[in-house]
Amino acid sequence: MSFPRKYLNEGEQIVLDLRPHWVFLVPSAALAVVALVLTMAASTLEGDVGRYALYASLVLVVLAAVRLLARIAVWTTTCFVVTTDRLIHRHGVFAKAGREIPLERLNDISFSQTLLQRVLKAGDVLIESAGERGQQHFRSFPHPERTQNEIHRQIELAQARDADRMAGARRELSPLEQLDKLAELRDRGVLSQAEFEAKKAELLGRM
What is the tens place of the pLDDT at every residue in 120-134? Predict the structure, then answer.
């Protein structure tokens, strides 16, 4: 299930929409398989021992299935989203929890992988940001190195956009633009006609 677009700000776009790596489900799935194998083995036994072993293995199958379903529910409701503006982490099946970190508040992004995780293309991502919870660990996510690089790239793009906006705000109005502003002030009654004509002559003298 992808992250709902209705929660995005105007002009914001999703860059990464991740769920935990499938290895997150492996222990529970392995337990369910073992329970099924034990059940098949118990069904071949005869007498009271076989019957009790079958009952016990069936209970184990039910418990393993419940655990696997719960794990799948956690997997589907956990998301790690990187947008052009922020990082979003949400999780929880019944009780929901989440955190959003603006890109400009991210101080450092690192990742770690064990040998097995490198083979499976999984790993952990560590985010450091300004604020009370300055460090947060995200475990078992796919392609952690690619995630790290993409977050750094989005931070650089966001900084470039901010610099462009600041440069545009600092840009001095041209004489013609200033003349339009003066005419607007005159029409609103802020400037008299004489003051407008004086400023107009001054601006035209610069052109």
Answer: 999 999 998 876 667
Tokens read off for 101 = 């970190």
Average pLDDT for the chain: 86
Q: Give me the number of domains the chain comprises.
A: 1
Residue 183 lies in a domain: yes
Q: What is the domain range of residue 193? A: 175-206
What are the tokens at 50? 């076989």
Collapsing DSSP to helix, strand or coil, 131 comes out as coil
- Answer whether 124's CB lies under 8 Å from 136's CB: no
Q: Quick check: is 120 in a domain?
A: no
Give pLDDT tens digits for 66-96: 999 999 999 999 999 999 999 999 988 887 8
| Residue 121 phi, psi dihedral angles, 5° rounding | 60, 45
Q: Is residue 190 packed enough to be buried (19+ CB in 10 Å), middle (13-18) or exposed (0-12)?
A: exposed
Rounded CA-CA distance 101/84 in Å is 12
Residue-by-residue DSSP string for 26-42: HHHHHHHHHHHHHHHHH
**Tokens 């006609």 appear where?**
193
Q: Which helix (H) or strand (E) holds 176?
A: helix 175-187
Question: Could you give the C-alpha distances from 70 to 11, 56, 75, 124, 153, in angstroms and in order?
Answer: 36, 21, 9, 22, 35
Q: What is the pTM of this model?
A: 0.69
Tokens of 63: 């418990």
- The reply to whether 193 falls in a domain is yes
In a domain, 100, yes or no: no
